[in-house]
Design brief:
Pseudouridine synthase, Archaeosine Trna-guanine Transglycosylase, Chain: A, domain 4, alpha+beta, 5-stranded mixed β-sheet, 16 strands, elongated, about 290 residues
Length: about 290
């Protein structure tokens, strides 16, 4: 089963939990995800199945979009609502404009401290494992990019936001740092991912939908059409002779694709067989073979 499936991850499950559930429902052992979501977060979790797991390397730097809610008045040790309060709650009196003004300094390329409870590795060990054992967690600032950051509304001690960020950005850290700038402390109260690269919420299926389709034998209806993946790579359909060579990892001449450096190669309208890289002229070599 070679496919791309977008799941609307429910709260309370890890990304690994979702992968395990889909493996069982679709009876496919090769399943991976394109970007971890914290257990409390919901929304777009792209899964790659079968040989499509080889596409993961092209999504390591994908932009992500979120909507959610910050709560001010106290920080937590995890920087989100699942952690323990780091102090006594403070009354929050800031206005929407004050929050928007403070938020402006978080737009663009910034230095960010990852949360102590995260998958960020320290000497090969995830930070959350060290933090749970009460070991000292020595993290370093990393450069991240927040491309869009809008504070949409303010209701008492809660602010609704929308953000578009580069890979590796922690919205939990933004919540913590914004609360510190405002002087009240803060944490992430709710987070929903609305997009990963080209995949958006309208593409997403619930686990209940996946289960019903698996039982009915209609799981193919759940999958994203493979011509939609990696939209920055043009699609080219290979002849039968060229497709056979590509399946064995050989370079072939393909139809001229302007100046494209990489293309998606199809054997027909739906079967994606390779991602190929231009060698010279119209000669392309398969970088990743996706079909047997």
């Amino acid at each position: 089963m070679n496919a791309v499936l977008i799941v609307d991850k429910p709260a309370g499950m890890t990304s690994h939990d979702v992968v395990a559930r889909v493996r069982k429902l679709l009876r496919e052992t090769a399943v991976g995800h394109l970007g971890t979501l914290d257990p409390m977060a919901t929304g777009v979790l792209p899964l790659v199945l079968g040989r499509m797991t080889r596409l993961a390397q092209f999504y390591t730097d994908s932009e992500k979009e979120y909507e959610g809610e910050f709560r001010f008045g106290f920080a937590t040790d995890t920087f989100d609502a699942e952690g323990e309060s780091a102090g006594e709650p403070l009354p929050v009196t800031c206005s929407l404009e004050q929050v928007r003004e403070a938020a402006r300094q978080f737009t663009g390329v910034i230095q960010q401290m990852p949360p102590p409870f995260s998958a960020k590795k320290i000497a090969g060990v995830p930070a959350y494992k060290l933090a749970r054992k009460r070991h000292e967690v020595k993290l370093e600032h990393v450069q991240v990019e927040i491309k869009q950051f809008d504070i949409l509304a303010m209701d008492n001690d809660r602010a609704q936001f929308r953000a578009r960020v580069a890979s590796g950005t922690y919205l939990r850290s933004v919540a913590h740092d914004l609360g510190r700038v405002l002087g009240y402390g803060g944490h992430l109260a709710r987070l929903r991912r609305t997009a990963v690269g080209e995949f958006t919420l309208p593409d997403a299926k619930t686990l209940d939908e996946v289960e019903r389709a698996a039982q009915a034998g209609t799981e193919q209806e759940l999958f994203v059409h493979l011509r939609r993946v990696l939209p920055g790579f043009p699609c080219v359909t290979a002849t039968d002779e060229a497709a056979a060579k590509i399946r064995h990892g050989h370079a072939v001449n393909l139809p001229e694709m302007s100046r494209a450096k990489q293309v998606k190669v199809f054997a027909n309208q739906a079967e994606l067989i390779a991602i190929a890289t231009r060698v010279a002229g119209t000669l392309f070599h398969p970088k990743v073979v996706l079909a047997g």
